[in-house]
Specification:
mainly alpha
Length: about 150
């Protein structure tokens, strides 16, 4: 599990470089991706549901991203887009397409539905956290002048 979390952090940092994130934010992007993948692994092993594990991980990644964004004074998308990278169901998209081209309709439908449900769960996880007011993420911040 530790190796997977470290590789998720490395993948997130690598994606951050491609995404042109400022270099001073690489570590925080890596932390965001690692925390999200850790929660994904824990939830998946406890409940066995890949879609629900992605939902929980997306919630955690979005919370961490919003906290980092407030404390680092950068846009939340810097951490969110990079941090969500390990959860993106790229393999599911690949296998769905592969099954389609191999004329394996039943396998394509099953993998496609699973992939779409994962993507929807990730989107809902992000949306749920963005419904929380920004003020709640200003932990440890002094109130600014009006």
């Amino acid at each position: 599990m530790l190796i997977q979390v470290l590789m998720a952090a490395l993948a997130t940092v690598s994606f951050s470089v491609l995404f042109n994130v400022p270099a001073r934010e690489y570590v925080f992007c890596g932390i965001t991706g690692a925390i999200g993948w850790l929660f994904y692994l824990i939830t998946c092993s406890m409940l066995g549901s890949i879609a629900f594990a992605n939902f929980i991980a997306a919630i955690i990644i979005t919370v961490v991203s919003r906290l980092f964004a407030v404390n680092r004074r950068v846009p939340v998308t810097i951490f969110l887009i990079a941090g969500i990278f390990p959860l993106v169901p790229g393999a599911g998209i690949y296998y769905t397409t592969s099954h389609i081209f191999n004329n394996e309709v039943n396998l394509a439908a099953a993998k496609g539905i699973e992939t779409i449900s994962i993507a929807i769960c990730i989107a809902f996880g992000i949306m749920v956290v963005f419904l929380i007011p920004q003020k709640l993420f200003m932990i440890g911040k002094r109130k600014g002048k009006a």
